[in-house]
Amino acid sequence: MPDAVLGEFISLSFMAIALGADAFSVGLGIGMQWLRLKRIFVIGLTVGLFHVMMPFLGIVIGHYISSQLEGFAIIAGGALLFGIGMQMLLSSFNREEQKWLHPTGTGLVLFALSVSIDSFSVGLSLGMSGTKVFLALLLFGLAATGLTWLGLLIGRKANGLLGVYSEIFGGSILCAFGLKLIFG
């Protein structure tokens, strides 16, 4: 049984990093604005909080759906993860000039929501597959917070070259986990 727990921890860790890749990527762009370290700290915590709330909502709804639909739920969850990963991969190649909201007040909430909305869908699929909720939420929150801080800090120092690659990496990981759930 400890091997199963370790396997789930590793899988959830990779998934958390993949979900946080969006926050890292967008953080690179926002970090290119001049931001004080205090603002970077607040942005990271806010994104981390949203990466806990959104998958929690998804997990709750996913548990309900899985109790109603049983076997179909795991395949649907895998397909959902794969779809999110593909969307991340495709959007990484569609690079239009984007205007960033200033990350304060409503702009901060919209930013945090935009980079965590995919974690709702991942939570939905995890709720259907019966994962360990506390572990998933903890890892998602920590990874999103850390990667947001990292993206913002690197964005202060560098240009946006890494943003595309982090999104491709994150999308690839989500696709892989989606296929793992489907074919299992």
Automatic annotation (TrEMBL):
Keywords associated with the record: Cell membrane, Ion transport, Manganese, Membrane, Transmembrane, Transmembrane helix, Transport
Membrane topology qualifier: Multi-pass membrane protein
Subcellular localization: Cell membrane
One Pfam family cited in the UniProt record for this chain: Mntp
Principal location listed in the UniProt entry: membrane
TM spans (from-to): 6-28, 40-65, 71-93, 105-127, 133-154, 161-183
InterPro entries: Mntp/YtaF, Put_MntP
GO molecular function: manganese ion transmembrane transporter activity
GO cellular component, one term: plasma membrane
Record flagged with keyword NAD: no
General function of this protein: Probably functions as a manganese efflux pump.
Family to which this protein belongs: Belongs to the MntP (TC 9.B.29) family.
Protein name: Putative manganese efflux pump MntP
Lineage start: Bacteria, Bacillati, Bacillota, Bacilli, Bacillales
